[in-house]
């Protein structure tokens, strides 16, 4: 697997790595940064190469062929990657019931400008990529947001659009909960907020990507939202991120093969944290770990896949 920041010329990098490896297939794509035993790096010309001692079954399809990907995966465990700037895949994970999927929406930079996919023997965009691997022996999801409201009922909404909450226009409900005016909400405050959906014993976080002043609705970056569903308003929390990560790490061993998919929004540069949360993970896991920073994170708990924001997905094999 090969991952690289969006500052690289992807075709050149892909061709050179394949030349050096003897034309072996490469799978992966763009990332906002990398996490290795040597450190946490982002914002430059980072690249991460992971080598396996035996071939893995893999499939690359157009991003619109979502059902084809799920049919191919079947009951196997797979790492799934897709192009964040490509065709929407919101429906894919809603229909993936009882399938074990972990993965990420790939993105090459914090400014949402670049993305690319490495699909075996070619560089592409707008693709779905799946790699069948043994299911991790240990897997955990850490969350970077906490609930700040009581449960709310979606009284009108579908897909990534929430039109009303508790019978009020969704934007007006949000402003009332926060005690803020719309101008202030459209500033840096909006980037701290998400809607949370119940997921096992916690909530999955789905960032509020856009406000619509005319319809008074909310547009969500990830997640499937339907009328009648219960949600909570959530806010990013650096302290909660660290606490959750520390708690999750206790179940993992040191110096065992591990892969960490971490939200780019959890980096210190983006979140304002004084320290990198990924440093905690890197130092704890030791020399057999690797990871990337992504645009959105995919994880499955109890056969329920969910695409989320501000999340860390840690997998280990032993």
TrEMBL record:
It comes from Gallaecimonas xiamenensis 3-C-1. InterPro entries: FIST_C, FIST_domain_N. Residues 1-169 form the FIST domain. It comes from the Bacteria. This is Diguanylate cyclase. Residues 170-301 form the FIST C-domain domain.
């Amino acid at each position: 697997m090969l991952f690289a920041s969006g500052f690289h010329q992807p075709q050149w990098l892909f061709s050179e790595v394949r030349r050096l490896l003897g034309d072996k297939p490469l799978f992966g794509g763009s990332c906002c940064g990398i996490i290795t035993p040597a450190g946490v790096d982002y914002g430059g010309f980072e690249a991460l190469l992971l080598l396996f001692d035996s071939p893995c079954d893999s499939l690359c399809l157009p991003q619109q062929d979502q059902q084809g990907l799920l049919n191919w995966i079947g009951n196997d465990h797979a790492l799934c990657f897709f192009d964040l700037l490509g065709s929407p895949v919101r429906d894919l994970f809603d229909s993936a019931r009882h399938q074990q999927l972990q993965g990420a929406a790939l993105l090459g930079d914090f400014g949402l400008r670049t993305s690319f996919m490495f699909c075996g023997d070619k560089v592409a965009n707008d693709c779905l990529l799946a790699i069948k691997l043994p299911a991790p022996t240990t897997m955990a999801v850490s969350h970077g947001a906490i609930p700040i409201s009581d449960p709310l009922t979606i009284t009108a909404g579908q897909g990534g659009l929430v039109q009303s909450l508790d019978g009020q226009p969704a934007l007006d409900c949000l402003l009332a909960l926060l005690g803020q005016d719309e101008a202030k909400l459209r500033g840096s405050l909006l980037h701290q907020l998400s809607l949370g959906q119940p997921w096992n014993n916690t909530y999955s976080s789905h960032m509020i990507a856009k406000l619509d002043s005319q319809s008074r609705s909310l547009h969500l970056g990830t997640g499937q939202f339907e009328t009648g569903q219960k949600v909570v308003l959530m806010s990013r929390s650096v302290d909660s991120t660290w606490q959750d990560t520390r708690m999750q790490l206790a179940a993992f061993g040191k110096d065992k093969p591990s892969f960490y998919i971490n939200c780019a929004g959890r980096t210190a540069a983006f979140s304002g944290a004084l320290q990198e949360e990924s440093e905690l993970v890197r130092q704890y896991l030791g020399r057999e770990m690797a990871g990337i920073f992504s645009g959105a994170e995919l994880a499955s708990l109890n056969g329920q896949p969910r695409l989320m924001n501000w999340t860390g997905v840690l997998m280990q094999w032993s």
